[in-house]
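Training component of the fellowship. As part of building independent skills, the fellow (R.M.) carried out the full modelling exercise for a liganded target. The chosen ligand was 3-hydroxybutanoyl-coenzyme A. The inputs are recorded below so that the supervisory panel can assess the work.
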Amino acid sequence: MVVSLSRQGNVGIITVDHPPVNAISAAVRAGILEALAQAQADGALEALVLAASGRTFMAGADITEFAKGPAGPTFHEVCQALEAAPKPIVAALHGTAFGGGLELALCCTARVAVPSAQVGLPEVKLGILPGAGGTQRLPRLVGVAAALDIIVSGDPVAAPQAAKAGVVDALIEGDLLAGAVAYAQSLLAKGQPYRRVRDITIDPESIPADFFAAARARFAKERRNQFAPQKIVDAVEAAVVLDIDAGLERERALIAECFVHPQARALQHVFFAERQVAKIPNLAKETQSRPIAKVAIIGAGTMGGGIAMNFANAGIPVTLLEVSAEGLERGLGVVRKNYEASAAKGKLTAAQVEARMAHITPTLAYSDLADADLIIEAVFETLDVKRQVFQELDKVAKAGAILASNTSYLSIDTIAQYTTRPADVVGLHFFSPANVMRLLEIVRGEKTAPDVLATSLELARRIKKIGVVAGNCHGFIGNRMLEGYGREANLLVLEGASPAQVDKVLFDFGMPMGAFAMSDMAGLDIGYRSRKERQLTNLQARAGRVGDKLVEAGRLGLKSGAGFYDYAPGSRTPMPSDATAQIIAQVQAGEGISARKIDDQEILERCFFALVNEGLKILGEGMAYRASDIDIVYINGYGFPAYRGGPMHWAENAIGLKTLLERLQHYAAQTGAPWWTPAPLLERLVSEGRSLASI
Ligand code: 3HC
Ligand code: NAI
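Fellow's submitted model of the complex:
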């Protein structure tokens, strides 16, 4: 029984019990209706409580049902039944009362919550809008502007704030059910009429005339290219201009539009991909994670300091080792500056800043790392330095300690060989800024022990990152794919597109910034140095020629005030540059290339198809467990728009694997470049008519 009715004196308690998160499946909807009917018919019951057992109140509709189509009683029927019940109903909230869960609660007479509960309408994150009355009832309860912000952000609101806003009527310290029953008694004592959210009126005159136009314009910018936020504005506007029943009908029509939009499918793919990613195939059930109570980090540079902050934020003590006192001082200074910037924005108190700093212990001595459960190396990117560090770690680290490298490109297997314990060695590849970026690539060496991988995934969650296991290949998943994307952007410029044209196509697609603006921000000298260190074929080297000349002309990017773009003093806004145009023309002349007009479609195809083809090679080689893991890497590490589902989902659904194959074959024939050879996996999938998910 997923829903039951029990009794405490004259109060009936309807309890939903549908683990793990009490998702409101067809059975739950039917169960609530049945329990409600029973309770109404029971003359001994005067009031009701709607509660859920386990870790949370209902966390929303059952998302697995979305793809299957409607079945069982609708949300609307359940809402109507709750709202029309003559007996008062108190919703008892704990955990996460999200989506349909909160919407059902809004149909009750009152809501009480434990202080740790959260409420929210996260539907927008699934590409839809609240479809069980949330867009009509929440504005009535908390005001139009506040409701719009809650619904468009999709972010949770903590119960104490929800109480201030009027969503929650009372906070219950102690036993929630007892508090809810007592609240129901107090409603009975006050007597009829019981307040219903649907009866609250919104005065249209109280809303500024341009409110909704301004909201549409704001979300067109803040939620660029996104469908659902605009539909949410339409729905909330309906709450103002229509009566509740007409508004509810409008909401149903609008959610139907969202459901059939490709963004909804993409975002729902991302929801499940995020949950899949933490699962290691064939991991023995009895695998136990290793306890991680103390962490050490080697190198307090750009990455080391940021990595340390993650652990300090999670309350895990961390020892930070450098080669010199100056290095330590500089590194800790940057960490402190970052925390103080957060404090200045009101995100941390001064005491919290000090508490976090106190979690970081600086040292110059390897002997101080002897009790660390996990040691992460973030020193210079050369094998020689990594060897010195890992040989030292092998001497001092305790048995069973995990030895990790933050290397961007170097082989984890080679690094593991520097120790006598390769099974304990793993790559933990953070992204810059390491205290901000959500992605953590967990690089599996040939000998990495399964429990080291499991521990790394668990740790990622503890420090609020999303861990993705990658195989040990040059650049792992993310940077390996990025290479083709950057290469095509540069070749397109050599062939006649301007950096601004390429960047506009990439930005309009939904990337946070174009490839050239990104290179300018990172610094062009990084790519320059790496090109000089690598043996590149002539064809490969060509893509770097403009970048090389820019660096040699002192144009290092934003930090030198000029790169692919010009920058006005103190400004970060890229402006097309005549000097760069001249350098491009010189390189074209040197390479014997006559510039041609390049259309936007070619830019889009070449940059993203190169990226996806590499992703397919990675998948075919077993360097990623699943296509959806690659999507998670790109969304969380490189800003690929989640509403396109990640590059692999996009390629399969918006382009089609067959078309992709044809276009790769076209570019391979046109350019003769080896990198356009289609991934063998793609050829196989297309010839067998299979999907990426079938791998
Ligand atoms: N439907 C179906 N399954 C769900 C689900 C849902 N709404 N929410 C979570 N699950 C599943 C997850 O897929 C996962 O399954 P798995 O163990 O097989 O991988 C399991 O429940 C546990 O989920 P998490 O790993 O995410 O558990 P956490 O404790 O980390 O988080 C949570 C719990 C905060 C509730 C989080 O799961 C969450 O945010 N869920 C989605 C909430 C949501 O989006 N609700 C709105 C749904 S749309 C809606 O209500 C439409 C309405 O307007 C009509
Ligand atoms: P960095 O140059 O900013 O910092 C390296 C630090 O290591 C310096 O403070 C240096 O003094 C210290 N160091 C050098 N040798 C040492 C030794 N033997 N013992 C102790 N400390 C030593 O470099 P950054 O950018 O932090 O990179 C570190 C690692 O992280 C590299 O492997 C890099 O490839 C990787 N990485 C860098 C990213 C970035 O965007 N900067 C992103 C992801 C990974």
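The panel noted the following from the submitted structure. The chain is about 50% helix and 10% strand. Residues 298-304, 321-323, 327, 378-381, 385, 388-389, 406-408, 429-432 surround NAI (ligand 2) (CB under 6 Å).
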